[in-house]
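In the laboratory, one determines a bound structure by crystallizing the protein with its ligand and collecting diffraction data. In a computational setting the workflow is compressed into a single prediction: the sequence and the ligand go in, and a structural description comes out. We illustrate the idea with tryptophan.
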Amino acid sequence: MSSKRSSFTGKIGFVLAAAGSAVGLGNIWRFPYLAAKYGGGIFLLVYIALSVTFGFSLMVAEIAIGRKSGKSAIEAFGSLDKRFSFLGWLAALVPVIILPYYSVIGGWVVKYFFGFVSGSAGAMAQDSYFGNYIGSVWQPLMWFAIFIGLTAVIVLFGVEKGIEKVSKVMMPILILLTAFIAIYTICSMDNAWGGVIYYIKPDFSKFSIMTVVAATGQLFYSMSLAMGIMITFGSYMKKDISIEKSAKQIEIFDTGVAFLAGLMIIPAVYSFSGGDEAALAQKGAGLMFETLPKVFDGMPGGTIIGVAFFFMVFLAALTSSISLMETIVSIFMDKFKLGRKVSCLIVLGISVIIGVPASLGYSAWGEVKVLGMQLLDFFDFASNSVMMPIIAFLTCVFVTFILKPNTVVEEIELSGKFKWKKLYEIVIKYVAPVCILAILASSVLDAFGIVKI
Ligand code: TRP
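The predicted complex, in structure-token form:
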């Protein structure tokens, strides 16, 4: 990639940034609410099963495509086969949809951080607080503007390195704090142990196709797959570094953080609902914001913990939003030969155009529904349950018929034996394409209300 990109000059810098960007709101905000909603233990099981099969295979394939072509996603597919150029463009569109609503949630995080700083911990622990907050028009818009504005300023001035350094120090602390909050809730709250069991023990009667649909979307989202990110990441990887090991490390780390976040939130919700599992299935995107302030409220030193926690989640979200924006900005710079400033402004403009409706979908535009979904949910659905499966499917087709699975194997074996080669081959050639198509079909049929799953 061109040296115009001020951010990732060193190869190692990019590798670290890409790995760091996998952990974000996807793990801490999105995973727990999906796990609560889609049956707890069964969701966790399906998620882990998908991550070692689909997730692993797709990740090594994407990294190998990137490293072999030495190009970013938008060029990689086309350079290996002209007919697949569109796939690079399609992949590039995903961050464009994610960034705006990601920033709306990022805004909620900033709001809660300042809420704890200003001593409103008690008020935030009230049942109606979150609903009232997102139901108001201006406040969420303002925090969204602050979050996306900050992201844009950082990308514009190319100062993400500093933020990433801070975030790297904070990330282990965030993990420890999450583990601490989880242990605290489990040990101190009534019924919390029942929540742990709900979260860990699979109840097969709760299984439905939607469990698989949700887990697959979450897998792509959390591991930043099926959007070209890992291809770009691979293009910066040295030939002697093991793709297989790196992929496994990213997966274990990313899943570990998500698992802990679930353990922090689900037993608490279970306890607050008095052990009512049906109440968990009703939970949505607000889960983390509704639950944690209540936990902190009952905790000694809860305000300080709330401040620290929301600050670190904010940093994790910010590094992800920076990397999402940087990805789009660099496409504008490379493909349309625009300057960094103009590109940033355009991306900011697009994000506001999509982000404002996503935020207003909870208040003034509450009546506006697309396929029965609120606007934010719709953007989330369109990217994670429709576009990413399409891209993942086409990537499998590309690897199987154009690139040939063996090319990926050869690329991986440049740095030693490919231990999970058989699994990879079977998944990429047969299992993934068939399952992904089935998943895509069910999510679309369900959304259009043709079949209720
Ligand atoms: N994986 C990130 C998370 O879990 C979100 C994300 C999706 C992302 N795509 C990305 C981050 C691309 C950086 C770049 O929060």
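Confidence is low (pLDDT under 50) at residues 1-11. Keep in mind that any predicted model is a hypothesis to be tested, not a measurement.
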